[in-house]
Write a structure and sequence with these properties.
The complex is a heterodimer of chains A (about 650) and B (about 170).
Chain A: H1 3-10, H2 14-30, E1 33-38, H3 41-45, H4 48-62, E2 66-67, E3 81-86, E4 98-101, E5 105-107, H5 115-125, E6 134-135, E7 142-143, H6 150-153, H7 171-176, H8 181-188, H9 192-202, H10 214-222, E8 230-235, H11 244-251, H12 253-267, E9 271-276, H13 281-296, E10 312-317, H14 327-334, E11 358-362, H15 363-375, H16 377-381, E12 391-398, E13 404-409, H17 414-421, E14 437-442, E15 448-451, H18 461-466, E16 475-480, H19 485-499, H20 505-522, H21 528-544, H22 548-552, H23 555-563, H24 565-573, E17 589-590, H25 600-604, E18 610-611, E19 619-620, H26 630-634, E20 640-641
Parallel strand pairs in A: 1-3, 2-3, 8-9, 8-11, 9-10, 12-16
Antiparallel strand pairs in A: 1-4, 4-5, 6-7, 12-13, 14-15, 14-16, 17-20, 18-19
Helix pairs in contact in A: 4-5, 8-12, 8-15, 9-10, 9-12, 11-12, 11-13, 12-15, 19-20, 20-21, 21-23, 23-24
Chain B: H1 7-21, H2 29-40, H3 45-55, H4 59-68, E1 80-85, H5 88-92, H6 95-106, E2 120-125, E3 137-139, E4 142-144, H7 149-167
Parallel strand pairs in B: 1-2
Antiparallel strand pairs in B: 1-3, 3-4
């Protein structure tokens, strides 16, 4: 940071923010081209850092001047190229992504070898390279950029707004997008009550799963008298299949910090913790850097925006326990204890971290807060349904053409998400199949399944609960016709069984029994009584567990039983898995056209289940077969079917 | 076997520094254990005892925390910790095949998950949050997306080759 800037930032107030914003804006307006390379975890895994380096080298080679960080003096920026990294742009399946502004040209699956061509053609001569544009797999249509790619066009990116655009490690760029103005407003022109009221009026509900009204939570904590209060940002995103919190912390960490500051103002807290999962090293790094920068800029610290108030934020890394996503367990973990949930009441609002009143909110909830304070409750209110306001991010994954991170208003239908934004369902070979849709698993291990019937259901908190599912953190896993629902149920049961903290019996033992019952079904040892027992145990676990983990652990099983009862019955009564995923129930046959009668399989079979004459097609006796797979390994002609 | 008189002192020097850096604060037990594990690659029992004494806590409590969280290990891990994601998205895109390939290639099992030469440890984890690129695996801090069995073998081969160069 330049000395000049340091002096400006010493007196951090609204005027300083405006000065930084305006100078940065005019500087970035003067550059001829802006190249943004996505550096979210997904794109980095696909090699985007090498693309960044190659682009940098190519600009230097071409003789054009390059900026990696904008200087405040706008005259210097004229006709130069500004190259930067961004956080997750959301379109993970197509990475590495390179976005070129102001043309709004977006290149997908870019390789370092493409760098020179991009600079010479697109950056210096405004030519579009067709080869690198996105092609819609459903209809073969080419799209130029975010303005016309259906994946982006149909979304409403508010919370994710600057994510994937701003450089997450540059605080000035965040300020240039009106960042920290809402925090300044809340500290200097609003009372704590007004802040809480604004959030309450906006109808914002917790995005971590529960859906409790955020404004009410803040009010409850605000009215408690105490010498010390805390704000916690819950970034322990443990649901398998969800990555919106990671993307936000990686892509726009300052927005999360600003949300925490406003929450702190609302309840009069002076200290905050961001609890981040250990599995997200990049999010930890970027959050730490952002906090340091905000502190250096005088935004955080002992005199926030000259209001005389204090606010400090620490980053705490988790240590690998899913149950720590539960708020009381998370607080125990920050205190250095085993992360086990505590009974409520007392609620964190009265007795939370270190026994002080505490507000604990999810990353996405906090990231929505600055927008509400800046634009007003009514602005936020216009999005969503009667009971669920605003937008929700979903991690769209599984058997769908466009996997990635999306944001849509509450009330959007599944059809819109899967077929229009997601581009349709894919079969196991990666081809779009029009009849392939089987189900969507929503809400991770706490959620349930939606099927073809629910295609036109407006997605919101209450509609999903009514269907036995839940918004959860927003994982949306699409499954095609080749997926076995009992295997999916078992997958989640195995997960919650592993992650059960062991504190209370219904969850600890109940999940174990449910898993064993599911294994019986999958291995062909079940009767119809098994399913009754499975449901009965499920209801007990649901009723008698202490925390959210146990209370919702049976949901994936109960929901699949409700929606796919026939598939369970097929497994139990006919000992058959029509999707051929359950090894013990597989139909193993020999393809008579491929079999040449070499007898290799018959000689290998340990139970003599294969018979046939030499040089003639053989056959397997299903009554004897133990499905060990030796015949499949022995066959050189791929004639053994079913594995 | 004779032990050098200062050896045990030197062993704890690093733990001592970590404890100091965290202000000998009980509430910072988890960061302390994380840093110790980073330094030693695992949590040796005598170190847990040392930490407990230094923080004035019962050993059982420290042990309780160290065994509660999946990240902490009381046994030495390999130089390369491979986390293969078995989250929902990876699961439906075939992560079990990836795990099998890892186990087969490195000749380890879910129970004995570290290679004899202490080079690799294979862990199945619930979600790495890179679901758009399923199946995913992570080698130390580096994430690899869309890992097929072949690609997995290539990645392992590259690491092994690099290691044998270093050794020579």
């Amino acid at each position: 940071m330049s000395e000049n800037l340091k002096t400006i930032m010493k007196t951090m107030n609204k005027a300083t923010l405006e000065k930084i914003r305006d100078e940065y804006k005019s500087a970035s307006g003067a550059v001829s081209k802006r190249i943004i390379v996505c550096a979210g975890t997904g794109c980095i895994a696909n090699g985007s850092l090498a693309v960044y380096d190659a682009l940098k080298e190519a600009v230097e080679k071409s003789g054009a001047s390059l900026f990696v960080e904008l200087e405040l003096d706008q005259h210097d920026c004229k006709d130069k190229v500004h190259l930067s990294n961004s956080g997750c742009q959301g379109f993970c399946a197509q990475g590495p992504l390179v976005n070129i502004l102001p043309d709004e040209t977006m290149y997908v699956k870019v390789k370092p070898e493409d760098a020179l061509e991009i600079i010479q053609k697109t950056v210096l001569n405004n030519e579009v390279i067709d080869r690198l544009l996105y092609v819609n797999p459903a209809n073969g249509e080419q799209s130029r950029g975010q303005l016309d790619i259906p994946f982006y066009k149909l979304q409403n990116r508010l919370v994710l707004g600057e994510c994937g655009h701003v450089d997450p490690e540059n605080i000035r760029e965040y300020i240039s997008h009106n960042g920290y103005f809402a925090a300044e407003k809340s500290y200097n022109t609003m009372t704590d009550e007004q802040v809480c009221d604004t959030i309450l009026e906006s109808g914002l509900r917790g995005r971590g799963g529960g859906g409790f009204p955020t404004g009410r939570k803040w009010h409850l904590t605000r009215v408690v008298e105490a010498d010390k209060k805390y704000v916690i940002c819950n970034g322990d995103e443990g649901d398998p299949g969800a990555f919106m919190d990671r993307s936000l912390m990686e892509g726009n960490p300052h927005r999360v910090i600003e949300g925490m500051m406003i929450a702190a103002r609302a309840i009069n807290a002076d200290e905050g913790y961001v609890y981040v999962r250990l599995e997200y090293p990049l999010a930890v790094k970027r959050m730490r850097k952002a906090i340091e920068d905000a502190l250096e800029a005088g935004i955080l610290g002992d005199n926030v925006f000259g209001s005389g108030r204090t606010m400090h934020i620490h980053v705490m890394e988790g240590a690998g326990a899913f149950v720590c996503g539960e708020e009381t367990a998370l607080m125990a973990s920050i205190e250095g204890k085993r992360g086990m949930p505590m009974p409520k009441p007392p609620f964190p609002a009265e007795c939370g971290l270190f026994e002080k009143p505490t507000v604990i909110n999810n990353v996405e909830t906090l990231a929505a807060v600055p927008l509400i304070v800046r634009n007003g409750a009514a602005w936020f209110n216009q999005y969503g349904t009667a009971t669920s306001k605003g937008t929700k991010t979903f991690a769209l994954t599984g058997h769908v053409a466009n996997t990635g991170l999306i944001e849509v208003p509450f009330g959007t239908t599944l059809r819109e998400i899967v077929f229009n934004i997601g581009g349709g369902v894919m079969d196991n070979d990666g081809k779009i199949s029009s009849k392939g849709f089987k189900a969507v698993q929503i809400g991770g291990p706490s959620g349930g399944c939606l099927t073809v019937e629910d295609m036109d259901l407006p997605l919101d908190y209450d509609n999903l609960i009514a269907k036995g599912a839940m918004v959860g953190s927003g994982g949306l896993v699409v499954m095609n016709q080749e997926s076995c629902m009992i295997q999916i149920a078992r997958f989640f049961m195995n997960f919650t069984q592993n992650e059960s903290c062991g504190k209370c019996l219904p969850c600890r033992e109940g999940t174990k029994q449910m898993l064993a019952l599911l294994d019986d079904i999958i291995e062909g040892n079940a009767t119809m009584k098994t399913m009754d027992l499975l449901e009965e145990v499920g209801h007990v676990v649901k009723k008698a567990s202490l925390c959210g983990l146990g209370k919702t652990a049976p949901s994936p099983v109960l929901s699949t039983i409700a929606k796919f009862r026939e598939e369970y019955v097929e497994h139990i009564e006919r000992k058959h898995c029509s999707t051929n995923n359950c090894k013990a129930l597989m139909d193993i046959t020999i393809d008579a056209e491929k079999c040449i009668g070499c007898t290799a399989c018959a000689r290998k079979c340990p139970v003599n289940a294969i018979s046939g004459e030499k040089k003639k097609p053989h056959s397997i006796d299903p009554a004897l077969c133990i499905k060990c797979g030796e015949c499949h390994k022995a066959c050189k002609f791929n004639a053994v079917m079913g594995f | 076997m004779k032990t050098e008189p200062n050896k045990s002192l030197r062993q704890f020097q690093q733990v001592h520094e970590i404890l100091e850096a965290n202000g000998n604060n009980k509430a910072r037990l988890i960061p302390i254990l994380q840093q110790v594990q980073e330094a030693y690659r695992f949590l040796p029992p005598q170190v847990l005892t040392y930490i407990a004494t230094a923080l004035g806590m019962p050993i059982a409590e420290v042990y309780g925390v160290a065994t509660f969280y999946a990240h902490f290990t009381l046994e030495a891990k390999g130089k390369y910790v491979i986390k293969a994601c078995d989250g929902t998205a990876c699961h439906v895109k075939g992560s079990s095949k990836l795990l099998d390939t890892l186990y087969d290639t490195l000749k380890v099992t879910p129970k004995k998950n570290t290679t004899d030469d202490m080079m690799f440890t294979v862990e199945a984890v619930s979600c790495l949050g890179a679901c758009g690129l399923a199946p995913v695996m992570m080698v130390n801090d580096k994430v690899y997306g869309e890992v097929s069995s072949d690609r997995c073998r290539e990645i392992l081969k590259a690491i092994m080759e690099e290691e044998s160069v270093v050794k020579e």
